[in-house]
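Fold it.
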Amino acid sequence: MPKVRAIEIVEDYTARARLDEGFLRLKRFRAVNRREDGSTSPEYRIDVIDRPTLDAVAVCLWARTAAGVEVLTRRGLRPAAYFRRGKRAALPEPEYLLVEEIVAGVLEPGEVGVEALRRRAADEVLEEAGLEVPLDAFRPLGGPFFPLPGIASEKIHVLEAEVARPAVAGRYDAPHEGDGSPLEEGAVLEWRTLPGALSACDAGEIEDAKTELAFRRLAARLRMG
């Protein structure tokens, strides 16, 4: 499949879109803080972003190789990062198209419990990395966390799994089918040594927070950090 060069807006329907539909749902409230003595704070506004489900999984895949422990990353299309272009950022930055992360995905409605997290992790790994991993290989990697608790209700559950590293060199194309979405087009996979991945986080080459958190937790678990 040809590589993606750009994301082109064919319509901006923001002005006529509802806040309570779509992949992200924005709720706007007026609220007060109710205090223990019965008094209340001044009224203020709250914006909350929900997805159709509250939880997601992020999967740290790793392998023991001749080079040491290696971890898998995936560069994929991220429109929110892409459309920073042309806007004034605090510091100079590149124009983004693909953003490097670990495999991740949102739970489906009705998926609850640890086994559901493992099944979702296995499905996402197969879709995004083309690897079949048994459910019992996935283990929690620390507790779940809120990426943006001030505005987003989503909580991310981090799992890890040791796998056999495919016999590939350098970067290589991810399975182009993915989940069937055009956002899956053009994704690229790469195995990095864990120390190299952490150095890339420190240097700002890997800018995804859940990815850095997973790598640092894995290094701590393996007593490499």
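The longest strand covers residues 55-65.
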